[in-house]
Amino acid sequence: MNDIPQSVYDQEDFFARYQTLRRNPHSVNNLVEKPTMLALLPDLHGKTLLDLGCGTGEHLQLYLQRGAALAVGVDLSQAMLKQARLALEKQPQNRPHFALYQLSMEKLAALPLADFDLVTSSFAFHYVADFPALLRNIHAKLKAGGELVFSQEYPIVTCYCGGERWEKDEHKQQIAYRLNYYREEGERARNWFKQPFKTYHRTVATIINNLIEAGFCIERIEEPMLAEQPAWQAEFKDLRHRPVLFFVKAKKV
Fold this sequence. Notes:
By secondary structure, the chain is of the alpha/beta class. The chain has helices at 12-22, 28-40, 58-65, 78-88, 131-141, 155-158, 204-213; strands at 48-52, 70-75, 97-102, 116-121, 142-153, 166-168, 174-177, 186-192, 195-201, 216-222, 245-252. The longest helix is centred in the N-terminal third of the chain and has 13 residues, at 28-40. The radius of gyration is 18 Å and the shape is globular.
């Protein structure tokens, strides 16, 4: 597997910190991403599905619990896949099958499986440089009428390119989120837990048009915020009036 690029999540310290973050039950993943994602899914009974950027397999476990016949996970990180396998093997023996592949999303065409009823991806597409190529490969892996459901960082988040994210008042309170670089699409240099990595910014229009051009019909878009969840407004005050994640449900035409 020497030709497989290195995942930032395979660096021990980075992965340990990520795991600590994900164990927090009051994270954006648990309060916003997961419930919105699950609400967009069709009935999974008897379905075959593919999860891109499956991570530690949390969504795969939920898909199997909802009756999926086959749940396939793809991720670049060995550490993620190791955790996913351990978790999925604990499923009751009468549960349906699963398969895991160490593969970057950009190499999806090399996956030796196809004819999926559903392709999902959570919080991952903003890591992909060539989004149109990814969508063409997903379209090819889906059955006729198959669906794609994904979340990614919202474009008002991915657009950040330097300087202060927020305009603040004299009391250093956040009053406006800056969108200086929204129109400038392309690569972004990021840093998390002192580890550099890359993401890619695309406008909402580009994302939707890429989907249409790849042969998808848009079924639903969600941009959840916490305005209706007062219990978490103090902890996530910047999410009361702006979305952090962008969700799309689309069907293969």
